[in-house]
Amino acid sequence: MPRTKTRHVTSFTRPSSVTYSLGGPQATITLPPHSSWTSGLHYHATHTEYLSVLQGVASITLSGRSQDYTPGDGIIVVPRYARHEWHRASHTGEDLIVREWTDPEDGLKESFFRNLNSVINEPNPPLPCYSMFRGWWIEWQILVICNSMDNYPVFLDLAWLGFLGRMIEDLIARVVLWALVLAGGVFGLKGAYEEYAPVSMSVVKGRRKNA
Length: 211
Hints:
Elements: E1 11-14, E2 18-21, E3 27-31, E4 42-43, E5 48-55, E6 58-62, E7 65-69, E8 75-78, E9 84-88, E10 96-103, H1 108-121, H2 134-148, E11 152-153, H3 162-186, H4 200-210
Antiparallel strand pairs: 1-2, 2-3, 3-10, 4-11, 5-8, 5-10, 6-7, 6-9
């Protein structure tokens, strides 16, 4: 089945959960009241990330330390390899609006969010029996995308082991992701789709060439 072209879409919404506003090096993420959305604990190997709370209160965990942030707290810097996660500090109150961007500003963040949301919202089933396996299929596809887009999930939190723990976390993440990538290739899963993001393939190919 052909994938739905979403390269022209500038906003992706999952009702009662999250809205991504894209269209440039910065991404604006809005979480409505009662949203249980979370970024999940993860890290980036080749990008420094920046977060700025524009409205509401965000609970941000950075390198094992959790803190609530408001617009008055300025820009939060997330160094490379720093484990981090963020979500609403409270289920009630106003919308939480957070802006994200990276250094370098190479388009990878926008490409990641476009591929991520397009996969989740894809109306054209990639397999005849897709409805039976939708949940794990989407999770599998997302992890393949993560591997190509410098997003490494923390599968086993070993922060209590310090530097050694971080090394083990990184090894686990890379082994798991590469196994999923290799297996996913058999079923046609890719780390990026040209139907979803105009910069997807050029950015990903550049990352592989420079790796």
